[in-house]
From TrEMBL:
It comes from Rotaria socialis. This is Nucleolar protein 10-like N-terminal domain-containing protein. Residues 2-305 form the Nucleolar protein 10-like N-terminal domain. GO terms for biological process: maturation of SSU-rRNA from tricistronic rRNA transcript (SSU-rRNA, 5.8S rRNA, LSU-rRNA). Gene3D superfamilies: YVTN repeat-like/Quinoprotein amine dehydrogenase. GO terms for cellular component: 90S preribosome; small-subunit processome. Pfam families: Beta-prop_NOL10_N.
Length: 308
């Protein structure tokens, strides 16, 4: 979702494409097709006008309102990217020990950051102090300070993850900052580790118990204590201090990604089917202002007593 809350982007496969929806009109704004599947996208502007797409063939496409504006290629396959707004740098990680930096103001690559890890699966900038965190395939959380362009912290997350997969080490599959100090790390064996970045030990470990990689973690904006996490099979909403489940959503088709609409109780789950699953949980918050009719439906349901 764009930062102004007006548009929702969805990427899909067969045929690879992106769709942009206008929430105020509750309709499709535009659709564009790609040559290859999109791995990750990042919205650079407040609205829909500037977007970057990372593709499965090592290409990165920059789009403006009119369509594809510019395309670059990375030396190795990328798996995740994030944007540093203060310096206009796009950081890309993937199947290499180097973290590529592309400056959008100069339109050129900068010298990459080098790591001892063989590859990375996830990366994110902290929006408050711009610490760059990335998760390696060896199960390490590495933190870089972009001002000095060097490693400032390294946590071995594989030690705390229960590996049931034999000899292979649990890799870091996703990362999410909550605020300046709290970070959640998802592993390929289905654990979520909650860290305070001042400590190298997690203050809470949540296990999905499916031994599947965690695909996305998000923190609820209204109910500060609730964490939303998904793997291929299930979406769980739970308390980050106690681990107590508020609820779980288990659809019949495999899940790929999640959007928690900011400031509301609406959750969208993308999956291996043509339709996006949309769930409304009134306990988490009200419906967004562009679909207030959901609140009316909820009130009607409360008036009619039901068995289930």
């Amino acid at each position: 979702m764009t930062r102004d809350g007006q548009y929702i982007f969805v990427t899909g496969a067969y045929k690879p494409r992106v769709r942009c929806y206008d929430v105020n009109e509750l309709s499709l704004k535009f659709e564009r097709c790609f040559d290859n599947e999109c791995i990750q996208m990042k919205i650079l502007s407040e609205d829909y006008s500037k977007v970057v797409f990372m593709h499965s063939n090592r290409y990165i496409e920059f789009h403006s309102q009119v369509g594809n504006y510019y395309t670059i290629r990375t030396p190795k396959q990328g798996r995740a990217c994030d944007y540093r707004y203060s310096s206009c740098d796009l950081y890309c990680v993937g199947a290499t020990n180097e973290i590529y930096r592309f400056n959008l103001e100069q339109g050129q690559y900068l010298e990459p950051l080098s790591s001892k890890s063989t590859g990375f699966n996830a990366c994110e900038f902290n929006p408050e102090h711009e610490l760059f965190a990335c998760g390696s395939v060896e199960g390490h959380l590495e933190c870089y300070d972009p001002r000095v362009r060097s490693l400032v912290g390294n946590i071995d997350c594989a030690v705390y993850a229960n590996s049931n997969s034999g000899n292979s080490l649990p890799a870091v599959s996703c990362i999410k900052f909550k605020d300046a100090l709290n970070i959640a790390v998802g592993t390929s064996t289905g654990q979520i580790l909650m860290f305070d970045i001042r400590s190298n030990k997690p203050y809470f470990i949540k296990d999905h118990n499916y031994n599947l990689p965690i695909k996305r973690i998000d923190f609820h904006t209204l109910n500060d204590d609730y964490v939303l996490s998904i793997d291929k099979k299930i979406c769980k909403i739970w308390n980050r201090h106690t681990g107590k489940n508020l609820t779980s959503i288990e659809p019949a088709t495999p899940l790929n990604d999640m959007l928690n609409i900011p400031g509301s109780g609406l959750i969208c789950l993308t999956n291996d089917s043509p339709k996006i699953f949309v769930y409304y949980i009134p306990t988490l918050g009200n419906a967004p202002k562009w679909c207030t009719f959901l609140d009316n439906i909820t009130e009607e349901l409360e008036e009619k007593p039901a068995d289930t």
